[in-house]
Amino acid sequence: MRLTPLLRVCLAVALGALLSACSSSTTSTATSTAPGSGGTIEIGVDLPISGADAAIGVPTQNGAVLAIEEANKNGFTGGVFKLESSLLDDAVQGVHDPAAGAQNVKTFIADSAVLAMVGPFNSNVAKSEIPLTDDAGLAQISPSNTNDGLTVGPDAKNLRTAHPDTNTYFRVCTKDSRQGGALAQFAQKLGFKKVFIIDDNETYGKGLADTFEAAYKGLGGTVLGHEHITANQQDFKALLTKVQSTAPDAVFFGGNTSTGGGLLRRQMGDVGMSATPFVGGDGISDTAEFVKEAGAMANNVYYSFAAPDADKLPSAKAFVQAYKARFNSDVGPYSAPAFAAAQIIIAAIEKAVKDDGGKMPTRADVLKNIAATNDFPTPIGKIGFDANGDTTAPMLTLKKMLAGGKTETVAQITLK
Amino acid sequence: MDLFLQQLVNGLSLGGIYALIALGYTMIYGIIELINFAHGDVYTLGTFFSLAILTLLGVTGIVTGPLLVVVVIVTMLGAMILCGLTGVVIERLAYRRLRNAPRLAPLITAIGMSFILENLMQYWHGPSPIPFPQVIPNPDVHLGAVTIATKQILVVVLAIGLMIVLRAFVYRTKLGQAMRATAQDRDAAQLMGIDINTTIALTFLIGSALAGAAGFVSGVYYGSTWFFNGFGAGLKAFTAAVLGGIGNLTGAMLGGFLIGLIEAMTTQLISDQWSNVVVFSVLVLVLIFRPSGLLGESLPAKV
Amino acid sequence: MRRLQPYLLFGAAIVLPLIFSNGGFVNFLADAGAFVLLALGLNIVVGFAGLLDLGYAAFFAIGSYTFAMLASPQFGIHIPFWVMLFLASGVAAVFGILLGAPTLRLRGDYLAIVTLGFGEIVPQTFLNLSQWTGGPNGIGSLDQPAIFGYRFGFQALPYYYLILGLIGVAVLAANNLRASRLGRAWMAIREDELAAAHAGINTTVTKLSAFAIGASFSGLAGCAYASKLQLVSPDQFGFNVSVAVLSMLVLGGMGNIPGVIVGSLVISSLDRFILPQLTNFMHGFGVAIDLTNSRFLIYGVILVLTMLFRPEGLIPSRQRRSELHAAGDAALAEQTLYTEAVP
């Protein structure tokens, strides 16, 4: 029959409505055991898992998924409830997008089976999500947000206008100010008196670089310059020539491997800076990818990692093995934190179910239990949360990349 | 002063790559008045093809001796041919039908083609940057305190060399004459017996081949490549083509080098984060005050 | 009956979120609505006046940041939301004139490239001026609208109705403009600028007003969207947004208001529903492909196929169809059979 334009419009709307009715939630985990007698409980996971961000987002998601699968295997809530994950992507065209993150959180909030969530990965996405979870009372734990303003200061207060006295946001990783401060001390100890700072002009990178700069200056170091690179930049030679002309003892990079860290390091060799050390934060801790992108220059690179050294912690070793067996690939830099975040949520849910006498717990119960987490053992050490949602006594491991793709641990410190 | 000279070298090398891409843009615009958005992605494709050929040849690092010349020529020609063919295919599939359509249509199609190419490349090698073999040995040339890498010399020499060859082709051969005629007045050229379809296809072949050469050179120069490179580089190369005078070959090369220099100098004198803004502002200013570019002629609008 | 169509559809739009009240769906509707507003604005520039603007996201950025800077803790200024709607659209209109002015003498392709250049310059500038704009962090905790003492809060539903209201106003404005002298001047310029100038139309004023009015719509959208998202940051306004809005126009039918709305909803649905559902569908068949990653591939294919085979879009205006299918009177005659339904 002839489709008049009006009919086409109606069809489009009907199609949209139909699809929305079908898609009340998206992908869930594949491990389908028989549903528990009490029903299904879901943990939402919101991470960037497509495009360029996928390289770091997917391994993170895998960490959370592993924790959920292990929980089911080990008899989650004694079989009363079945645990599932609700995995959503906040990357649009390969880049994390705050609006997509907000949409995902709204989807979680609307789904009554979701009692808590893991995520987001990026600090600017968190800024659009925290007001929503605060309003809805949905607990969220991020494996990787480091921006200070998410938990402390006037910015943090402004994010929690719906319920200023409740905190629904937690993170298992350390804040920029602590990481930047530790790296500044570290740079001083290594004898770098003059440093040139470069950052990727993104929330995490610029935040880390700024805190590093302030701390480093405070310790008496000289900052020769502070430049920002652009997204998708390919040619760093002009910038690096400028840096070289200032003769720095080291170059500090605030940012990720995927936002230019690897390429920047590689091109340092082209302008004659092969002997100059490179210092970064946990954004360049995905050493496999960094070595690939930096090539022969991935040597003499210092970086920090917001967790204890995996080689020294037995639970960390077990985690790495289990991950390899399940996903057939190496862990990513944030797989363990995501695993820890999910573990904490699972423990909180189990306690809430027990306290409720086997009934479906409320989000408020789960939130309360998460907030009370203290000395909880995970592959990244013992985790507890302070009143702001930050970790108490986090550990920072400082490592160095050597020739041939090897790494060595230089120091491991517990930050106060 | 040394710093200035060093940045000059950096700017010229970067500009050489832009120049090669700009040559292709200007040729295609000159003949069918289409801004081929996909051209920047053909450049990236050139790097990918080069990588594939080098992998096939088993090259993973530096090549020395006479073998070096063979490898370079084989890879570059291979990339150029493959890119040229890609350009022809794109023209045949997407642009030919729209030759007489209002200008909006082929422009939007070109944008669409650009996305398709970018995504296909993302499927091919993934979303992260990938390393490219070094190929050219290291020894740098030192002129006083200024260091010029062999790679940088290669880029500039290639850009100028290919432009000279191209000019010779366009101004001294019959096919080149046919291209110029088609660019000047398509209908009249047809009336004179020139096969428009073949001529336009040839233009795409050559223009895309140049982008392929730029791709090979860029892979060697940066030691890495990435599926999304073409977007930024293409935009700046188009700026270069406009700056030099669209439709003018020497202008495209001149524009390319100028844009490279502007980028390098902005980074040195102001800051890296403003270099893109400055380059695009140049584009805007040129189009406002001298739309015909530095070397272009002001053509009156035909009624 | 035909006259009532728009009102019926509007009524349906009002009732829709009350029937399908899933929080995620209502949020999607509100976001999609903001993009409908953007598409309507771009329609004035590209569809009515024929000025190919490839950097429309710049105006969206200007509208959003204006709101963010004047209605948030950033500078401590808190101008009421309803005033901000006028203010932001006004500021965006002024920038429409400023950014449009350099393009006056340019032909189609060059105009496109200059607007593309602006589309790159504006977000990068917002990113770089971090003392005022918060740099990559952007500006957060934006003010929420309040009406008669009722504050909007974090539910999507009131924002949906706000945006729906704005769309209604925009459609009325666009329709009236199209039928006015200015609208006809726009179409004259679109068809043949030289002839229009010779017929006495002031091309400068006409073009600038197209840019200004088109930009003002994005100012409205910027206010509503930023307030709902509670955040503006530079990476929200990249080339991909400009292209997405352009795709909405191309797909739906440039110059045609119902077409633009439909195109916008289709592209938004593509993103949020169709691609994820298709991916699940394929997973069910054991094909491990992630289509949400191919969003731009699909846009590209849509653009190419639409331009090759149906350049007038899904819901074209009769004019466009006839001018784009220059060849084949038979084809034209066949299509004129189901024309007039479009108001």
Count of structural domains of chain A = 2
Strand percentage of chain C lies at: under 5%
Strands of the largest sheet of chain C, in order across it? 1-4
CATH superfamily of the largest domain in chain A: Response regulator
Instruction: Pick out the low-confidence regions of chain A.
Output: 20-35
Helix run count of chain C: 15
Q: Do you know the CATH topology of the largest domain in chain A?
A: Rossmann fold
Rough shape of chain C? globular
Structural class of chain C: mainly alpha
Shape of chain A: globular
Q: SS-based structural class of chain A?
A: alpha/beta
Largest chain interface and its two residue counts?
A: A-C, 62 and 60 residues
The first-to-last residue Cα distance of chain C is: 11 Å
DSSP, total strands of chain C? 4
Q: Could you tell me the radius of gyration of chain C in angstroms?
A: 20 Å
The succession of helices and strands of chain A, N to C, reads: HEHEEEHEHEHEHEHEHEHEHEHHHEEEE
**Topology pattern of chain C, helix = H, strand = E:** HHHHHHEEEHHHHEHHHHH
Number of strands of chain A: 16
Biggest β-sheet of chain C: count, sense, barrel? 2 strands, antiparallel
Unreliably modeled segments of chain C: 327-343
Short précis:
The complex is a heterotrimer of chains A (416), B (303) and C (343). Chain A has 416 residues and is α/β, with parallel strands linked by helices. Chain A is built from 13 helices and 16 strands.
Please provide a written account of the structure.
The complex is a heterotrimer of chains A (416), B (303) and C (343). By secondary structure, chain A is an alpha/beta fold. Chain A is built from 13 helices and 16 strands. Chain A has two domains: 210 residues, Response regulator (Rossmann fold); 147 residues, Response regulator (Rossmann fold), CATH 3.40.50. In chain A, the strands form four sheets. Chain A has a seven-stranded mixed sheet, with helices on one face. In chain A, strands 2-1-5-6-7 form a five-stranded parallel sheet, with helices on both faces. In chain A, helix 2 links the parallel strand 1 and strand 2. The radius of gyration of chain A is 22 Å and the shape is globular. Chain B has a domain of 204 residues. The longest helix of chain B has 31 residues. Chain B starts with a helix and ends in a 14-residue tail after the last helix. Chain B is globular. With 303 residues, chain B is mainly α. Chain B is built from eleven helices and four strands, in the order H-H-H-H-E-E-E-H-H-H-H-E-H-H-H. In chain B, strand 2 and strand 3 form a beta hairpin. The mean pLDDT of chain B is 89. Chain C has 343 residues and is an all-alpha fold. The N and C termini of chain C lie close together (11 Å). In chain C, helix 2 crosses helix 11. In chain C, the strands form two sheets. In chain C, strands 1-4 form a two-stranded antiparallel sheet. Chain C has a two-stranded antiparallel sheet with strand order 2-3. Chain C has a domain of 229 residues. At the A-C interface, helix 1, helix 3, helix 4, helix 5 and helix 7 of A face helix 1, helix 2, helix 5 and helix 12 of C.
